[in-house]
Amino acid sequence: MPRKGASNKNSGQGSNKKVLKAIRESAENIHGKIMARKKPTMKLPVRSLSNVRYQPRRGFFEMAGQKKERTLTVNTVKTFAQTLRMVALSKELIESDDIATKREAYYVSKNWEDARFAEQPESDTVMDDVEAFFAVNREQLGFIPEEKGGDVAGRLIVIDHDRDTGKALRIDCTKFGSGAYSIPISVEQLQFETKAKFILVIETAGMFQRLVKHNYWKQANCILVSMGGVPTRACRRFIRRLADTKKIPVYVFVDGDPYGITNIYRTLKVGSGNAAHLNEFFCVPQARFLGITPQDIVDYKLPTHPLKEVDIKRARDAIKNDPFVRHFQEWTKAMEQLLKMGVRAEQQALAKHGLNYVIDTYLPEKLAKPERFLP
Amino acid sequence: MPRKGASNKNSGQGSNKKVLKAIRESAENIHGKIMARKKPTMKLPVRSLSNVRYQPRRGFFEMAGQKKERTLTVNTVKTFAQTLRMVALSKELIESDDIATKREAYYVSKNWEDARFAEQPESDTVMDDVEAFFAVNREQLGFIPEEKGGDVAGRLIVIDHDRDTGKALRIDCTKFGSGAYSIPISVEQLQFETKAKFILVIETAGMFQRLVKHNYWKQANCILVSMGGVPTRACRRFIRRLADTKKIPVYVFVDGDPYGITNIYRTLKVGSGNAAHLNEFFCVPQARFLGITPQDIVDYKLPTHPLKEVDIKRARDAIKNDPFVRHFQEWTKAMEQLLKMGVRAEQQALAKHGLNYVIDTYLPEKLAKPERFLP
Lengths: 375, 375
Prior knowledge:
3-stranded antiparallel β-sheet, about 40% helix, homodimer
């Protein structure tokens, strides 16, 4: 299955070697047990909310450490075999610098005879187990999500490599005109060069297009990233790696409604509850909330819409149950203010004051006082 | 509202000048009538299925020519004023080389005093009227959709311009590594250079990423475009302009199911019924269907899923009511074959034969006989 000419020499990540080493060690361990006529076992972290802990200092939900043991028995033999085949597929992917989506991995299994998966959810579960077992994110194992998303423009050079020649490719995100650089599904191999002062992460494609069209990144010396709604894994990981390696702040500009605040901003910053073993890689703890804040609706006299029932439910639920909103008094207060006003405002509502008010007034005023951004 | 430094000198499209001229003429016409104390009128095409005709030779649904007249009366004064203000906003956008999303246009109207819109659907309708009135697509009026979508990699240089300096920007789509060029929301200003033999348009981001990762465009000398599901307006317009100006064929590679065939391929090729005044600009009549065909499922022994109820309904409906499927016997037969087999296959099902079987075997075999592609 490895492609001719495929080679790992250019991906050049230490993480690849580490993962390969871990795979080899676990395989030798299991092989050794079998040769010694003992029952081989794999210890997997328990993946559920009951095994999650929130450490404000680390900034994301993380696994609490409970493990379940998968021992080879008559009952577990199929799952055990599937887990090992999935690990073997991962090894093959890394060694041949290839990738497979969850769906492709499922179809590949159709050739595993008795170990084949009947339905994709089964293979997804085994993949999640493997991911948690090696305590890395799926992308480091060569497995990539189906969905793509995230556009970039501005003062950033992304360094990728040509797979055939091994040559470095310098992708200058100031040179895309009204277009943009589209973030690949897996970003582990990318490196960055930038002198930008901050990353501005934007919810809607329309607002992103406005800022790109007007070269806003020149004026503000920044990098613009469009999430296009709830950010994909690749988009979150890209922002995280960029912000970490270049040590630049991340400011988030979304709609002023419970969805923008919890589903988009909160997910970007601290991750989500049901995939805690991934938050370590995919959250962006350094993110700060630029706007639209509930107070902006007042200060900038924005046109609003009434909160929908689902908004009200979401806001009340966040105040009561979301450990992130509960931890930060500022967020509890902001959610209460929104509920009290009974309205929401879209980021494009700033157009009431002129299409480019956002560029000429709103963003400069906000960026003059980043210490006021919500946490 | 025009931005300082904004200038139209670099957008350099004849289409801009034509639209501005049409706007000026219609305004002078209305102004003249008013000065002569006559009632001004605007003739708008009727936008409904009853006013649509299908000409196989032209390749898309088009308006049949019925018009409605909007005369200034006590009852129509508000809509009339709103229509004129929307036209004025368009003129301003074109002259200042700016853009506005439908939502922004709605918010801008909040400053139109009595002519302001109460809800966005009202302003959307007026915008559709203006679009149909000038017989151009919204993007040519400076109005852009909210959503973005469509990635490009391969043997193509896109020529855009830097808005500040006016310099041409040559965007080389062979130089993005595992990333891609993200199509902007409006593509009217773009120019192209390419020696590619064809454009391969792909449904899923996962398949696109595989072909990009393996530099498939080198091997096949082509341009890869990812639709990421149903293509956005910008993505469809981009493919159309590229295929028209460079006279290269368009091959479409989607899932082998009624959704991939009708909702994705059919929409891309001939447009949709409810926006017939736009199909002229957004359809890609030269598109041909590479796969996954129902026959591919047999020939390549693909793993399948049973057709869902919604699939069966969609296929039956297409055979009965879709003028496109009805026109082409090949499509009627293909849909019937799918219904008879009772199964569907995803494009990634090819992974059963190895992850890169699609690159090494399937695509080369299909591309050897493009005359066999479905119409």
